[in-house]
Amino acid sequence: MSRVSPFARLVRVGFVEPGRATTLLQEAGLLALLGADAPTDAPVDALLDALAGVASPDEALVALTRIASAVVGTAHEDLVREAATRPGPVRDRLLAVLGGSTALGDHLVRHPEDVAALADDDPLGTPDTVVRAELLRAVGVPDDAEVPVATLTGTAGVDAMRRAYRRRLMMVAGADLVGTEPLSLLPGVAAALADLASAALEAALALARAEHPDHAAARLAVMGLGKTGGRELNYVSDVDVIHVVEPAEGHEEAEAVVVGARLATALARACSVASTEPALWPVDAALRPEGKQGPLVRTVASHRAYYERWSKTWEFQALLKARHVAGDVEVAQQYLAAMGPMVWSAVERENFVEDSQAMRRRVEDNVPAAEADRQLKLGVGGLRDVEFTVQLLQLVHGRADETIRSPNTLRAIAALSAGGYVAREDAARLAVCYRLLRAMEHRLQLHRLRRTHLLPTAEPELRRLARAMRLEPAGHEALVERWRAVRREVRDLHEELFYRPLLPATAHLTREEASLAPDAARARLAAIGYRDPAGAMRHIAALTEGVTRRAAIQRQLLPVLLGWFAEGSDPDAGLLAFRRVSDELGTTHWYLKLLRDSGVAANRLACVLSTSRYAADALARSPESVTWLDSDAELEPRGVARLAAEVDALLTRASDAKAAATLLRALRRRELARTAVAQVLRRTTSRASQEALTAAADVVLAGVLRIAEHEARTGPDGALTRFAVIAMGRLGGQELGYGSDADVLFVHDPLPDVDPAAAQAQAVSIAMRVRALLGEMGPEPALEVDADLRPEGRNGPLVRTLAAYGEYYERWSAPWESQALLRARPVAGDGDLAERFVAMVDPVRYPAGGADPAVQREVRRLKARMEAERLPRGVDPARHLKLGRGGLSDVEWTAQMLQLRHGHEVPGLRTTSTLDALTAAQQAGLLAEEDGDTLREAWTLCSQLRDVVVLWTGRAGGPSGDVLPHDRRALAGLARLLGMPPGSGGELEEHYLRSGRRARAVVERVFYG
């Protein structure tokens, strides 16, 4: 041995019990087998070096000592000595098996001659036919037998079959355990185990035939299900089967069923009852029709009848993996031909997807609480999460796509990825996680060849598992941490894929609808409300033709999206808009993945595109905004503070005034789109939308003013005056709509010792620059800045000093100007100047003692004149949302009259908000509770209608935006945008007219007196 102390050497090799190992290394039988005289000799040293790479050096040494005791002095001594001492693959496999499986170590103690089988260099690549022939020969079946019948029968035959099985199992384990990449080897190992199980079933059936001389009456086929059917078996697992029988020629069906049941029973007994050699595994036929209560064997016709009439959803999921594993091949083919169409049409059953999802939850709920955090198979983030996810995707999409029907989980994941049903990255992650979980499961089961799926808790067992998984020197802590990370990752992927809203929606379609077959698709489009099915088919063809991954994903999405478009007001427009967005974004890596994988994005996109032309155009202009649809948080209004910080960052980086203004307008355009989408999806209220639109206008005004002031400061004269912008009208009331202008007043205050004329010229230049930067035509929407509410209107100076405003309002202001000032709100520029302006105009808009009777009469006269002169010719006064009876103007002027009369005495009335003013008037007893509610309802409804008219038509502004349309289809579209059921256009019209009449009655009493 080396110069290191023997005890330390053993610890370094990996022995957990070095004292016991020291004793074993002194065993005479072991020393004789190794050809050593003492534990310090070179053969022992070489053995220890070799044991450093096995899962458990302790268990390997114990097993090798036992084998040595069994073979020394026997004919097998040289064979075992050669295997144990000669460096090379055979020694590596032998020690790996002994260190990884005490059960296989026991087998070699009983049958040391089987060490010779470890010389096979490629047991994972052995054809299944070779393995089958090997096990049939073990029970004495001639190679040329047409129907295998064992000649070695009874206990001897059973033991021979089991020994041959264990020998082949040891070969597979040896190749598996010496591999440096367990995850890479896993598919080959699982397939080899499944082939071995199939061969054992064939040999067991041969034994059963020998036991029953009348076997020729029955043509029995054994169909593998579960992991056996998928060629992905564990080392130890129940082997799930279904037995199918047909009568042989000249025999009756009843006789065949009886004989077949005897054969199936004998087959199961050969695999699992007690005998000299250990049992293989239980043969589980509980997945058959009617479960354990049903007949053990059935004919193909009987199976078909059951599945057509009585089967449950989970039974079709089980049949997805059905595969012939033993017995009559022709009967198996008949069975598969009969079951296949039913399996791949099962998704059309009512609540198929929901039932599958509920079944997974039940399985999870039934996991004992004490095991939940240790379950590799059934628990959260376990193997069942992967398998249920893959199988549901296969069953939903597989009826129209045969390429994804593989019963093998890893192959199915690869096929789902290739077909675009799962993102490549997600599929890769899912496959790696599945391999890791299965490899851990294999190592756990291999240790004692017992069926287990629980991660151990004892440190020695965890350490052995970590070494078997090739995670040394990181240790078992790294194994546990990696397992936990995999659980989290699997669960995330399961919840993302298994609960996709596209799955139940796709399941509800017929096979033809899901496949987009032209005739069926055209008929469906016409039936669900498309006005131009031929045009829709052209869009569908453009989106889906070709063999690209993009086209494949579109073929998945469109069958469902077509139905979702039809739930909107204009499905044709929705499909056209979807094509526009897809043409823009289809080549990006995230767009189609988002629609396929998100829980809400595809449905929301369909709703927006088919319900609102304005929002559809907004998304088409900035397609990246589609990402908002996946998150409620992204649809929340940004607020002034957040937008102002963004504006500040933007201006800090900007060097060109025009480019900076364009970016500011782009910011406003983005917020218009965000607000529109949120309003269409009813993720926000009309009032919140007004505030969001106002916030965007506020920060853009402030940002552009900073640009204009910066230009003035850096000019030849420098800064000559302080400047402020006062919001008026709907901007001042924070009640902007999608087509609203920005009503403002410009005020300035010359700096000390500055020429007033020069200061005035600079202020006018700043104001004109603000209007120009926001109002000029360009790539981003303009914001018209309207200063017509200034003193003397359009004939007055564009900008006045604070003193000039004061003088004007004190000497010449008209009642309408006092009324307009009720909406005055500082919005941009010098804060101190703005506050002084507000303090100056407060006595004008909230006069002490209230507005005198003459002012009130003038306001009423102006209102009546406006109704008579400004209402567009030919428009029904009852349908004009702004100027009509009970419209916005009626309510706002009524609220403003109360403010003019009582604002000085009632602080709550000193607000720029119409709704807040009405509430304050109610609370002060100036407005009856019922009257206030009536006015509030009318104003809110009119505001909502003005918004949804823009959202429906896509046109912001213009006289048509203020009129409730007569067209039934338009009314229906507006009703849908307001969240009313389909076909509610007439109801909306009646509701609006009734609301207007009631509000007008209140206006007549309160405003006109």
UniProtKB/TrEMBL annotation:
Its cofactor is Mg(2+). It comes from the Bacteria. GO terms for molecular function: [glutamate-ammonia-ligase] adenylyltransferase activity; [glutamine synthetase]-adenylyl-L-tyrosine phosphorylase activity; ATP binding; magnesium ion binding. Signal peptide: none annotated. Residues 93-336, 603-837 form the Glutamate-ammonia ligase adenylyltransferase repeated domain. One of its GO terms (cellular component) is cytosol. GO terms for biological process: regulation of glutamine family amino acid metabolic process. Residues 358-498, 875-1006 form the PII-uridylyltransferase/Glutamine-synthetase adenylyltransferase domain. Residues 510-1009 are annotated as: Adenylyl transferase. Residues 1-502 are annotated as: Adenylyl removase. Keywords: ATP-binding, Magnesium, Multifunctional enzyme, Nucleotide-binding, Nucleotidyltransferase, Transferase. This is Bifunctional glutamine synthetase adenylyltransferase/adenylyl-removing enzyme. It comes from Actinotalea ferrariae CF5-4. The lineage of its organism: Bacteria, Bacillati, Actinomycetota, Actinomycetes, Micrococcales.
